[in-house]
Structure formats: C-alpha cells, structure tokens
Amino acid sequence: MSSPVIVQGTAVQSPAAQAAPHHGDGNQDDQQPPKTGCNDPIFAILFYGNLAAICYTAVAYGPAAFDSTVNSNSEDYSGYVYAAVITGVISFIFSGFGLTFLMQYPETMIKMGLIFVVVMSLVWCVMAFLSGSIFAGVIGVVFFLIGVCYARAVWSRIPFAAINMVTAGTAIKANLGVCLFAYLFTAIEFGWVILWSIAFAGTLDSTYSCNANGYCTDPNYGLLFLLFVSFFFTQQVLQSSVHVTVAGTVGTWWVAPEESGCCSKGVCNSFIRTVTTSFGSICFGSLLVAIVQALRALAQEAQNNGDAAILACIAECILACLASILEYFNKWAYIYVGVYGYSYLQAGRSVIQLFKDRGWEAIIADDLVGNALLLTSIIVGGLIGAVGMVLATTTGFFEQAGGNELAVAFTIGFIVGLSICSILLSTIASGVNTVIVMFADAPREFQQNHPELSQKMRETWTKFYPGSMAPVA
Prior knowledge:
By secondary structure, this protein is mostly helical. It has helices spanning 41-66, 78-104, 106-130, 134-154, 158-174, 178-207, 221-255, 265-275, 279-304, 309-340, 344-358, 360-394, 405-441, 443-449, 451-464; strands spanning 5-7, 10-12. The protein has a two-stranded antiparallel sheet with strand order 1-2. Strand 1 (5-7) and strand 2 form a beta hairpin.
C-alpha cells in the first residue's frame, strides 16, 4: 500500500494507490506528516534572478528612452481614469451577479456558451466571404462544421460539466477570499507589464538605431529572446499562482470543509504554499512555456522584418501549437502541485495517469465550462460598456475623445468589465479542474463531507457509464 498524500493536513489516498480512481472503492492508509521543503528550488532562484535583471535594466536604461517623449502639450485624460474606476467598481457587482446566475442555471449557460462558440465561427465565415477573402471563408466553413459536429457529440455530456461547475462554484463561494488573491496577482501582473515595458524600451533605445538616411540596424535577436523569455516567464508564473492557490483551496474544502471560510486557514495556507514550497514547481512549468512563447515571438519579429519570412511563419505555427499544448498540460499539472504539493515532474506523471483514467471526459467538461465562463464575461463586459456610455452622456469624463465619446466609453467599460469578470470566473475554471481531479482521487472524502453534491455527481456519471461506480461508504 502506498502512503496517503497530505492535503492541508488531511490524509487522502494517493492517486497511484487506486487501480480505478473513478470507482470510489479505494482504501485509505495511515496518515503521515505532510512533506516539507521547497520543490524545484532552482527554478524559483531563476525567477528571482529574472526579476532582478529586469529591475536593473529598467532603472539603468529606461529613463533615457523616455526623455524625448515628454510632451508639454499633453492632454488631460483624468476623466478616463475616473470612468475606469467607476466602471471597475460596478464590474465587481455585475460579476457577482454573473457568478450567481451561472450557479443557478449551469446547464443553460453551458448550452448557450457552446452555441455561442459555433455561431461566432459562422459569423467569422460570413465576414470573411463578404470581405472577399475566399481562403479565410473556406477555413471558416471547416471550423463551423467541426463546431457543429463537436456540439452534437458533447451535448449529452453537458449535465456532467454542469455539476462540475456547480461543485467548483460552491467551493469558491465557501472560500471567497481566494478571489482577493486572484485580483492581487492580476494587479502585480499589471505592474510587471509596466516595468518590463520600461526595460524593453530602454534596451531597444541603447541597441537599436537609425541614421539620417533611414537605414536602421538589425535588432539584436539574442537580447529580444531574453526579454521575451523574461516577460512570458513572469506572466506565466503570476497566472499559474492563481491557479495553484485555487487548487489548494478547493482541495482543502473537499477533504476538510471545517477549514473553509472567506479568509480561512484553507485559503491563507494555500496561498502561502503557492509562494513558498510550491513556487519552484510553478516556475519550472512556466519557464518551459515562456521559452516556447519567446521563440514564437522571435519568429513573429523575424517575419515582420522579412528575415526568412516563410520559415519564420512555419516556425511560428509549430511553436504556437506547442505552447498551447504545454499550457494545457500545465493547467492540469498545477492542480496536483496545489492539492498534493507534488514537484512539477511528479505532477506531470499524475496528469498522464489522469488522462489514462478519464480521457476525453476531463477535456470535454473543462472545455464546456470554459465556453460558459467566456460567454458570461462577454455579457458582463457588454453591460459595463453600456454603463460607460451612460457616463459619457451624463458627465464630462470623455471630452478628449474628439467626437467619439460613446465608442471610447463603451470600449473602456467593456475592457474593464470583461477583465474583472474574467479574473473572478477564472477561479471557477481552476476549481472545475480541481473537482475533476479530486473526484477521481478522493470520492470517499467527497461523499463524507459533501454528500448532496457527491450524490448528484455520481448519478450523472452513472448515466454515461452504468455500473462503473461502486457504492461509497
């Protein structure tokens, strides 16, 4: 028998100990103390070195790049800031309503999300033909037909995706403080973009020049690669930290609901583990994605500069696919990092085992829920855009828009509303992934602690696979 894995101090049977995780008949061993120490520390050290290098570059070279851009005739855009703040506050309220509506009508929203994706592919197809782009139109027709076939194939799986989303939403509402950490990491990411932009501009200003005849030196692709790696590395780490924090919180709620609460022990300890013992593992996976994304950005830059354009285009397509695969793999690996405290490589092996056991069911449930969350975010963005238009007609916030007040107001409101709602609902997406993993690994704990939700999920699963689930004591 393998020893149990520790989730926030509570023993849960190791996934490797169960021959058929979805049967729910595994036995639990004696408890062991939780693992201590930092996993994959070298990658955390690389991350901190990356931050130090960008900070130094921004301070040393950044100011010179912006000296010539100071404009004494700059316009007053304070009204835009006020509008963004007002729409941001309202976005929190509307996002809460959106989350409530999702939990109240999960199947309806998932169906609408699936239909929305298919309809948008049709719109793209029609717009391509109307613009005279026959090739793009044909590609649009292919994607539309694939979307229709996919919708028809997975329509019967919607109830299972819905109960996954309801379970994840219940866990998030029981630990609402985890959303604060999601917004915290988003604010840090915003600051990182500004800092990196200063460093990037300073580096280009000191290495890239043009003479009086308009001849410019070739960009230093080595420096560009390092800068792109730095940008994507930090971006991936911050986004993944939210994912891991949510996974740890939902895992704790699953096996120890008494530790749940807005700013409970489960939430705070999950955040602490994310930025300490599990941080190296987050950096490990993020660095792999960052390298691929940086190579892709480099290929785009080479293509724009006319350097081996055809080869650069092919490389960009291949790297884009590889980056998407790595990001999707990491999304599941980080669940095991957040819940069980695994190292990155150990988590990767668990992901492979998950797909052997659950296969397409995990992917379909994840995709269906993602469509519903996207649609909800777009609806909230549209509503906040309408609020921005109201502000444009009742205040002087958009006087600098030069006759485009309504369009600018709607755009600002839409972006703010979409961003804030997406951040909140991203916790649901992470929660759904965690629920799928925990339902495979710890069905007994789910039945003991959340019998009503457990029964609904088991009944829904049994509809597709009769007799596949043994009774849980």
